[in-house]
Amino acid sequence: MIAAACSRVLDRALAQDPEFSRLRNAGRSTLACLVTATLDVWWTLQHHQDITLAAPGTLFAMIAPLFLRESRLSSWLVSLFLLYCCACASFAASALIASQPELRYAGLLLVVFVGMLCQPLGPRAVGSALLALVAFYLGLYLHPSHEKLLAMLGVMASAPLVVAVVGRVVLPMAPRDGEWRAFARALYHGASSARTRAGAAARGAGRLCARLRLPRLADVATLTRGHRHLAWRTAALATISALLAMLAGSELSEDRSMWAVISTFVVFLGTHSREDTLARVAKRLAGTLAGAAVSALLVIAFPHAAGVLIAAMALSVFGWAYFILHAYARGVFFITMLVGLVYGQLGFAIVPLAKLRIEEVVAGCLISVAVAVLLMPSAAARAAKAQAEENAGLAVVEVEANLAAD
């Protein structure tokens, strides 16, 4: 009976998380974050440095593993290098301009715009955008001196090394033993399909050379439509929302206004209609309210139990990494709880801080809702536009067929 129950639980878990990919991703993120934090904090204590030197590297090790999806080592390392460069460049730039209000605001809006613009380019671009925004916030908040900035960047160099060891050695992405046969079959069929496509491409090239005088309108239409357009509309709306959130957040707290800006960024990330945005806002508000309440209760209940709070932080990192990409409200709950626990450990008054975080997030979400309702298309309008584009494509193909017949 116990074996049958365990089998049912395993089958249900596999149905919800095929091949336990989410579990492995969360494990990579949590382990890399813990190892990086331990190494960096140990180094700072040994050299009698400020513990905040460990913050950039720890944050990078927590976020980067979620966006390293490539199975090939070379592509994986390229993604890791790009994520690391974006995080370092954004952190250094924000630290250098933190004392100049005009430049810091302009730089923040530029990071939001470029990050949102490039989001259709895949996980590598989304991860770079998210890391750049969070690193920019960290640079503005910590505002390190030039010497401290160089020390932070030096300590941060350990993070990609830890991520590489955890992601490729400790918890690798290679197929498991039971998957090698399926992997070999897929490889064989992939090679056969590649040969078939190569032959078709050669024949198509021959026909194209023979018909150069006839323009292929369908091909032109396909190229112009493309499946990887830059998100110009979303980038513009997110930047407008970020500007308004920055102004509103500054009225609440000059030091915490970035919480409102980050809310607008993540609300628009991956959304394409006002319905998507409203659903994302509802999930973010629910997760923030619950996470702020739980973190405040934990800090108040265990004020001197550092071990309990550190264990809760590790659990928060794991929960955030596990849920954020498929169950957004739960992911927001865990990241909000993590923020509250970290600030509580640093000695901040947790209740006013939790209240301020809720206010900043609410401000950012309300601004996002207003911009989405006024300027974003509805889901029905997007569906109608997609249908119109499909009909236009069919019309182009029909025109080309008629020209060919003539």
Describe this structure in words.
With 406 residues, the chain is an all-alpha fold. Among the domains are: 20-171, no CATH class; 273-377, no CATH class. It is 80% helix and 0% strand. It is built from 17 helices and no strands. α2 runs antiparallel to α14, α3 (55-63) runs antiparallel to α6 (123-142) and α10 packs antiparallel against α17 (379-405). It is globular. The chain starts with a helix and ends with a helix. The model is unreliable at 176-188, 211-227 and 386-406 (pLDDT under 50).
Give a concise summary.
The chain is an all-alpha fold and 406 residues long.
Write the layout of secondary structure elements.
Blueprint: H1 2-16, H2 21-46, H3 55-63, H4 73-97, H5 101-117, H6 123-142, H7 146-156, H8 158-170, H9 180-210, H10 217-225, H11 232-252, H12 257-268, H13 274-301, H14 306-323, H15 328-345, H16 350-375, H17 379-405
Helix pairs in contact: 2-3, 2-8, 2-14, 3-6, 3-7, 3-8, 4-5, 4-6, 4-7, 4-8, 5-6, 5-11, 10-17, 11-12, 11-16, 12-16, 13-15, 13-16, 14-15
Distance between the termini: 74 Å
Task: Specify the helix fraction band.
Answer: over 70%
**Shape, please?**
globular
Q: Tell me the number of strands.
A: 0
Please compute the radius of gyration using only Cα atoms: 25 Å
SS summary, helix count: 17
H/E topology pattern:
HHHHHHHHHHHHHHHHH
Report the major sheet. none
**Can you give the mean pLDDT?**
83
Strand proportion, as a percent range, falls in under 5%
Question: Would you identify the regions where 5 or more consecutive residues have pLDDT less than 50?
Answer: 176-188, 211-227, 386-406
Structural class: mainly alpha
